[in-house]
Amino acid sequence: MERFRSKDTTFCATDASQYAMVELHLHIDGSLTVDDVLLMAKEEGVDVPSSREELSKRLICPNHCEDLNDYLNCFSLPIAVMQQENTIAYGVESLVMRLDAQRLLYAELRFAPQQHTKKGLTQETIVKAAIKGLRQGLANCQNGFKANLIISCMRGKGNEHLNMETVRLAGKYLGDGICGTDLAGAEALYPTENFRSLFAYAKSMEVPFTIHAGEAAGVESMRHAIEFGARRIGHGIRSHADAEMKQILKDHDVCLTLCPSSNLQTKALQGVNSYCEYPMGAFFDDGVSVNISSDNMTVSDTSLRKELEHCFHAGIITPEQAERTVESAISHCFLSEREKEQLRRIYRNRRLSH
Quick one: pLDDT at residue 2? Predict the structure, then answer.
C-alpha cells in the first residue's frame, strides 16, 4: 500500500477516508459522470461523442487549462443535458448515491437554476425537480448519508431579476431541501461589489449564503463578501499572504472552502503549480477556519478523499489539521445547532470505528 509522508507522521491511503466526511463545496453539474451524461443526453436529445474517451475530454478539465474562464467551458455539456425535470432530478439523485457510496456523512450540493431554463422550465419547477432528486437519492442511501441543496446565483450582465428569483426561491424552500444560496461564475469579469443589493435581499429573507471570492479576483472581492454577510467563502485562496484579510476572516468567523485541485487547474495563484506549493499551511498557522472540498468531481477528476490524499502526500496537512477541517465544516454548514451536534456525534463515532 502506498505510504504518504506528512511532516513527522506516515499515512496510508486509507487514512484519508477518516476525514473525507463533510463536503461543503460541490457543484452538481461539474460532477456528472460519463454514464450520467450518456443517459441524460439521450433523454434530452443532445448529441454527444459516441466514444467514452472523447466524451471524457469534454467533461474533464484539460491539462492546458489557462484560467477560471477556460475551466468553466467544461460545464456547457453537463448544463445542456439538465434541461428537463427528470434529468435534473436524476443528476441530483445520482450524485447523492455516489457520495453515500463514498461514505460521506453530509454534503451541501449546489447548482444554478437559471442555467437550466433553456427549454422553458421556470426556476421554481427546476428547484422542485432538484429537491425531488435529492429525496429520491437520500431514500436509497445505505450508509446514513445526508445532504441539502444550495441554489446559486450567477455573475453576469442583465440577469439581476433571475438572481433575485433564485434568492426568493431559496427563502421559500429553506429547510425543505434547500439550505442556502451562493454566487458563482466569472469573478474577475463581474465584481462581487456589484451584488450588494442581491445579498441584502438574502439577509432580509434570512437565507444563509456563501460567495465564490478570492479565486479569480483578489482579497477585495472577499472583503465585499464578508461585508454582505457571507458565512463561508468559496475558495478565498488569494488571501493566503494577506494578514489583514486573515484577521478579518477570524473576526467574522468565516470559513474558506478550499479546493486544491480546482485552484491548481484554474491557476488561481500565480507560480503555484503543485500540491506541495499550495499554501494551505498559511491558513492553519494563522487560525483561519478552512474546509477542504472537491468543487467538481468530474471536471477536476477528483473526490473529497482524493483531495485529502493529495494534501497528505504533498505534506501540506497533518492529521490534527485534517481533523480541524472537518470540525470547521460542521461548524459552518447551513444546519441548525441541533443538527450540527448530531452530525458531530456521528462523526466521532465513525472516527472511533476506524
Answer: 39
Which portions of the chain are predicted below pLDDT 70?
A: 1-14, 354
Residues 174, 175, 176, 182, CA torsion sign? positive
- What does the pLDDT read at residue 216? 84
* Cell triple for 81: 443535458
Catalytic residue check, 215: yes
The Cα 20–Cα 29 span in angstroms is 21
Q: Phi-psi region for residue 109, left (φ > 0), alpha (ψ -120 to 50) or beta?
A: beta
Sheet holding 290-292, edge to edge: 210-213, 232-235, 255-258, 290-292
Contact 244, 276 (CB under 8 A): no
pTM: 0.94
Distances (CA, A) of 350 to 144, 164, 192, 276, 335: 11, 40, 39, 29, 20
Query: CB of 121 within 8 A of CB of 83?
Result: yes
Q: Which of 215, 307, 320, 341 is catalytic?
A: 215
